[in-house]
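input
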Amino acid sequence: SSSSSSSSSSARERDNGKTTTSEANFMPKNLDDGVDEDDDDRRKKIEETRRRSSFSSSSSGISKLSKLRETSSIPISQRATDLPKHQQDEKSRTKNWTYPSPKMFYEAIKRKGWQPPETDIDNVVKIHNVVNERCWQEILKWEKEFHPKTLSGGGGGGGGDPGEEETNNASVSLLRFKGKPRDYSPKARLLNALGYKLPFDRHDWIIDRNGEDVRYVIDFYNAKVPPQGKGDSSSLEVGPIAMHVDVRPALDSLEAFYERAYMQMKWISSGRWMR
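output
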């Protein structure tokens, strides 16, 4: 049982056997994580990337990447006490999570051992932001289905489009999150046993629902690129990719079991699985 969505965008990806890793799924806090030196496959991939990649900085060695940061639609929980420093610096300006700038993103990727061309970073950051916005919208769909009073309880931000009212509602906010790319969820392992590929990444997002901690699991999958018509175009430069995100509440309570079972039955009865 899940709520899922596919996002089409563009980025360079690296093939790693059954799974593919994309820079599109970095969240701000994960940018500070180190490289797992016990992961032989990852070390080999890093070395291969170092050999193949080239920097596109100017001849003076000064990066031309932008330092501008985009503000997300995801509210920061008022109970969040362990914000990364770069989020704390922005908290006085906005009540929402702020995405890293292209320059911050690039420096963080280099700290992890990757050496991507600077020319790719703007596109990668765009994809990163779009994917995280989609994840938040999928969480809000679950909240609207089972906890509508929370979303209609006031505290929303002002001035946005009518459809953004729920997005800005401070009654549901993001408390913290963590990337778990090698810690596959039970559902992902089950689907893999049935012949499906493993996700290339996983995040756990802890939301603040009116003072209650609720954990959501998000699995990121590579999907087939949809066919493009003659009139179709992309604002990104490196070609289309497709990404599928599987968002659902973690099975940490009987309430979550009910919600997952209900949504699974709703999906089966809709007939969408036969399409």
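quick obs: Strands lie at 3-10, 13-16, 19-22, 71-75, 96-98, 172-179, 201-209, 212-223, 240-249.
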